[in-house]
Amino acid sequence: MRGGGGRALDGVVHYPDPEYSGLVEAVAARYGAAPEEVIVGNGSTEILNLIPRVVPMRRAVIPVPAYSEYAGVVEAAGLPVVPFYLREQTGFRLDAEALSSELEGRDLVFICRPNNPTGLICPAQDVRYLAA
Known about the structure:
By secondary structure, the chain is of the alpha/beta class.
């Protein structure tokens, strides 16, 4: 092998755990969740594609404007998309109470921090409120 790259293979003794077992256990312990409630992946694209396929939901409610890939992965998983339009008059800020009134059990909601494309951050207490 040119450049001696083959010699480095002798030092490779561990292959990454494809199930992310250690990470899942650590996240579950940190947040008081069951390991089966934790989804981890190799980057945001993988996780975005996994969520609508592994979490049993009726539909996805997406505050817009938002990253267009949210609707794409949800539609590819066969779920209906319900846009929740953010208003220009309020600077496109997410109104957690208004969004909450639109939710019907088993809805998937995408809230990014910061929002793409507005750059606004939904306060953590609003995320907790919506999750409850």
